[in-house]
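Same chain as my last thread, 324 residues:
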Amino acid sequence: MSEARLHRNTGLDLMRVTEATAISAARWMGLGKRDEADHAASVAMLRALNGLEMDGRIVISKDNRADGFSELHTGCAVGTGRGVAVDVVVDPIDGQRLLVQGRSGAVSVAAMAVRGSMWSPSPAAYMEKLVVNRAAAAALVPECLDAPVAWTLALIARAKGKAVRDLVVFLLDRPRHSDLLDEIRAAGSRVMLNDDGDIAGAALAAAPDGPVDLLIGVGGSAEGVIAACAVKALGGGMLARLAPQSDAERQALAATDIDTRRILTCSDLVAGDQIFFVATGITDGLLLDGVGFAHDRASTNSLILRCETRTRRRIHADHLITAV
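reply #2:
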């Protein structure tokens, strides 16, 4: 792995990328135009990334799924080509459904690490995930992904000094999770069902003082790699395993040497500590405030995580829109 080091202000540079993206995406709030919002946000993010002094490469993106975007595809070169060689993972709109329906919780996200740090499971599109904060990180064992969910919930509750009924579980509202949802409810834990946005969900679950105790279920692989950057920077714990959802995805993976049965940790998904994770709110949510507009100004709220120092910054900014 490269011995290059990322400058301590890398997070601020990356924040300018997610700010510009969030401002662009926020114009589409509640308009019901998913493709148009996605395209506008992706173009804004690519433009901002290409202004950074770096030799960047998109490690994995959502282009393995039907809702993927072409502007920031897997393998795409970003940055000026000068500076430190880095791996980059992005999601211009984490929570596309939330944005186009005018609902809370959509964010713009980007993460960066020195080249060779991030695992790229392409052509995998989906991944099973379990995320907790640092209070429960040491309690996670590989068996958590295969054991009855009641057992896993009891393990996490014990580590956090809570009753199982007091846990809050973040779960995407998907047909594939119907049995899992029934198990969680039968165990007595509270459930935060969300239409979209499992990167923000992972950040909430990994935060030491967040409103969510764990994230569980199957979501995007690209989102899983981005989430791992946040979880590792927050000192949380994460288990993951590829979970192909179609015959085409299974066949594509069979043609590679990727072990779909392997259970991965944060350090398997992103190595080392030269890692930055940044998110900017698009619509108001539990993680961040959304973009606000007032005549020629826009306000943003961002989160910057630096793994090396475990620094967590929340930044409110006011922008002259014509300057963004």
